[in-house]
Target: Peptide chain release factor
Amino acid sequence: MKTKIIQITAGRGPTECSWVVAQVLKLFLEEIKNSGFTYNVIQRDKGSENGTVQSATIQLKGKEIDIFLSSWLGTIQWIGTSKFRKYNKRKNWFIGMYEVKQIQLVVLKEKDISFQTMRSSGPGGQNVNKVNSAVRATYNLTGDQVVVMDSRSQHQNKKIAIERLKEKVNQSQLNNLKKSLSDQWENHLSVQRGNPIKIFKGADFKKQYKKQSYASNRQQLKKDLRNELKN
Model:
């Protein structure tokens, strides 16, 4: 079973594009359910007007997700009249749907930690300073390290160091993940306007939307995807 994270964004587009994101999000989630996949909307940023969405991030799980997404990922175009600006003559509005690259989070294992003992400093009396009770723990894969001298027991300090190092590594990975998502968001701010993967028309988005059955088109999608991979 594969897991994918998808982002639908209006980029730097105006309010009309945020409205299109909201409509596409509804249709996308409906088609996900009809195709038997599971999903979780992990982020949804509201637009400036009621009923609009600036961006949404969805986690998908299931088999053959790549085939399903091949008809969705890319630029999506809506042809219609603005409902927010009565005299605006523009008819073409564009949003983007992209796959978010996932960072593989590592699970800290004790075999990847190096330990170094040293004499504790500060309060604690002569017994503390005469033995190497303090512990420095270093995670070899990232270089993160902590020093613990909470206890007079070297064994106890080692246990504490492992837990604190886990917290530090997890926080570091979380920060890297947030930066990755932010960088990808910046890359997608300028939505490409050429070669849309889907085109919708009309004020009533749902009625104008020509619904396609993923199940009925699965074999053709597989064939197209194989041909694309060969080229």
User: Anything to note?
Assistant: The chain has a mean pLDDT of 82.
